[in-house]
Amino acid sequence: MIGRASIPLIAIATLRDLGFGKEADTILKKAKYVSSTTRDITRIPKKLNADLFYLSGFILGDGCTPYVKNGTNLDYGFSAISGQKEFLEKEIRPIIEENFEIRCSPSRYSFHYGASWTLEKRNKAIHRFLTKIVGLPRGKKSVKAHIPFIVKQANEKEKSAFLAGLIDSDIGNHGNRMGCTFRSKKIVEDLIEFLNKFGILAKSYGTHYKDGKYEQNDFTIPKSQVKTLKELLLRNYLPKRQDRLDTINKLAGIGKRSNLPDSGNPFARQKALTEKGWKSLVA
Q1: What are the start-end ranges of the H helices in 48-138?
Q2: Domains with residue ranges and CATH for the chain
Q3: DSSP-derived secondary structure letter, 2
Q4: Parallel, antiparallel, or unpaired for β 178-182 and 214-221?
């Protein structure tokens, strides 16, 4: 076990950056948990799996990694936000609790640019994991959101999982297309480049200012590109929200008939993919 929250994790990451990868691996092989001054004991994953890439994409889209001054100290944490409480409880909570071996409080109702639910945890180790290891922006991320370097260097399955997280949080029905608006221009540029590497030609139709002062940058996946997006996700990692799957199916030319498996049960989804095979699912 490593003590004092995540300070040793940063030191270990620095060792790796300095070329001492073998030494860092030796330390990490023996350490499974991090304890903090708040007596939380947290499991820190030794590597990012597909679910953690998905969670990172979801938090980048609809979540944050706040650090708030509390007296002479700082409180660190993270949160995931959705308009669907059941989705947070059934899909997001298990990823957090299984990978970090912690317990989150029940999702609470809030009014975050509209009625929504927030799943959050005060935990410095996970905050540092998400910001220092994954590379998510600290604090309010809307104007500084970008695709982290570690995601850009990931394999196709991991990149698809990250993209599925963004789709479940931000990228939905956008007229007769898929997309959304971001306050950050950088993430729009990153996404266009990111998707282009998979043969998906995303676009931006410019910038406007909400209420005359809040910059909003358009991000669009044209209808003609959605089938290629669908095939990428089917090969690797599906979004978990049924309404997002329905939107992808509809724009890919499937209409109301859905050949994407039910997102509510990950075991049923995997079973369907195994039994039917990828080729039969790609229309």
Answers
A1: 50-62, 85-87, 93-100, 124-128
A2: 7-150 (3.10.28.10), 171-281 (3.10.28)
A3: B
A4: antiparallel
Tens of pLDDT, residues 9-24: 666 667 777 887 777 7
DSSP character for 267?
H
Write out the E strands in the chain: 33-35, 41-43, 63-64, 67-70, 73-82, 108-111, 115-122, 172-173, 178-182, 207-210, 214-221
- Residue type at 174 in one-letter notation: H
Residue 155 near residue 53 (C-beta atoms within 8 A):
no
Residues 6+ away with beta carbon under 8 Å from 71: none
- The distance between the two most distant Cα atoms of the chain, rounded to a whole number of Å, is 59
Average pLDDT over residues 113-138: 90
DSSP run (H or E) holding 150: helix 149-152
pTM of the model: 0.80
